[in-house]
Predict the structure.
Amino acid sequence: MAENLPKKPIMRPGANNKSNTVRSILFTFILLCFGAFLIANMNYGDTKKDEVPISDVIQRANDPEGNIAKITVTGNSLDITLKGKDKPTEISRKDPSGTLYDQGLINYCDGLEGEELTGCQETYPVIEYKEDVDVWGIVLNIALTVLPIVALVFFFSWMMKQANAANNQSMSFGKSRARLYGPDKKKVTFKDVAGNESAKQDLTEIVDFLKNPKKYEKLGAKIPRGVLLAGDPGTGKTLMARAVAGEADVPFFSISGSEFAEMFVGVGASRVRDLFSKAKKNAPSIIFIDEIDAVAHKRDAKGGAGREDEQTLNQILVEMDGFDNDSGVIVMAATNRVDMLDKALLRPGRFDRHVNVTLPERKDRLEILKVHFKGKPVEEDVDLESLAKKTAGSSGADLANIANEAAIGAAREGHKAISNKDVVEAFERVAIGPARKSKVMNEKEKKITAYHEAGHAVVGHVLPDSDPVHKVTIIPRGNTGGVTWFLPPEDRSYKNIYELKDILARAMGGRMAEKLIFGKDAVTTGASSDLKNVAQLAKSMILEEGMGEGTRNLVFPSEATGYYTITTDKPYSEKTAELIDAEIKKLSDEAAKRAEEVLKANKAVLDKLAEELLQHETLEEAELEPILKSAKLPETAKLYK
Ligand code: ADP
Ligand code: MG
Ligand code: ZN
């Protein structure tokens, strides 16, 4: 669905000049080399010379009648000028192993002066020694001096090109980075977004701004600039932003905050600049910055924003402040963590419109499921209503995932259509992990698991403020040996302290049942995740909900609430810390005690349920009902309300 705009390189002024300098330096260097080469060849003489053997040269030189006037010795080579000529016409090479004297070339005129010298020179050749100028050596020398410089220049120009390429890439939406969902692409509309009616309503207004900007301008209304979509992961924020673009039928420029993190230093800000200028050119249009918290986290929060992020963030702010009222560009952003955002981003004129995207309620879940099962072949028995009921707390993405898993499961089993069994399996797979039918449990382990799960079920069933038991299974799934599902009759936003205490107790039910049946020393590792859950819930009840008996109505800034990061920063005294620990322990002890009391009082029911589980492995609500029916709540497990 993502379309890449054709890459259009944007040359920055100056970038061109730099590469010109490089080119001229290179050109000079090549010229120099060429010149040196020419000089070298000139030195060796440009007229054609006859190569003669050294023995012949020596013979003629020693002969008073010989025709050689002058021998110029340069290193190993001899240039021979004949009598009556003014330029060497012959060339010869000495044997490199010895001196010329050894080889028989004698300078007869050495040491003579005046007329004697002239007379000698008429008879014998003048022998001149020229310094051995190794032209190639000179060239090599030059090369060795110049090459590192050239290499450096090359390296810098290469670096520059890289940086420019990165800039151009970001500026031109190349390489599948920033995406444009053009008007001709498959459009997402509000119809594709199920539920979330209030968010859609808020956004309809934005769509109208984009469609009829004139209408608002005429009345002098300020068009909103920034719309922040806030909500849990997977609730459809990204989908919603795309739907706005689809509804308004305007170009949609999208980039994810996390993509900035991968960029070259300094690129984030220029990227933002170009994103905005592109959007302005294509106005009316939408800029969508997904996961904006990645660049716009509080500058003083945990870890702090890096300098790079800060520049990116500042650039976003600068661009938004620079908008004219009639620019026709609306900036949307999405985040899971509004609390983490830099406050500067939320000021008027920036992201001052907030649209909350919430986890779907039961009827919305049903709508979302319908959207995602649409177009898939389903059997008559598929019960989306009950799936919607079971999936409290699931996000739209979770539900889409279940629908997809159901289809995959059905295909794997070779079904022609998705059956309800596929749907239930998909739900449990998504919630806990795939069933591990192949995992072998020995009889003893199976029995322990059966009692453990039965313990959860009996305690949960008996306690008055616990949700009803929906299903119990001892088929291993994910990391668990078995699962007991509790199902709230309806969605609830709040839980009271009694409900929470019952949750703690039923979580303890597994371990307590093991202890009751197999003895206190027979405890297994099967309850570790239950105990972790108990510890976590108890802690948050004390620290965050103010539910401690000795600390009632007091909440304590904790790591979870983001007020402090290092334990030494605890903004309360050691004495209070001890009190908190004691409160947490009290809650978990009470839960264990209540679970134990319930199980002791209903041992017969516990045995029966464990037995049935060993036999059938999975029991549904209807099968559980007759077994659990006779269980009673003992006085000792009641809460003092
Ligand atoms: P977020 O951006 O909030 O994390 P997304 O928009 O990426 O969530 O949602 C992920 C997927 O979940 C979507 O592509 C869509 O398939 C599904 N989804 C989420 N919410 C809804 C919804 N309200 N209606 C239909 N599908 C949804
Ligand atoms: Mg998203
Ligand atoms: Zn358990």
The pocket of adenosine-5'-diphosphate (ligand 1) is lined by residues 193-196, 231, 233-239, 334, 368, 371, 396-397, 400 (CB under 6 Å).
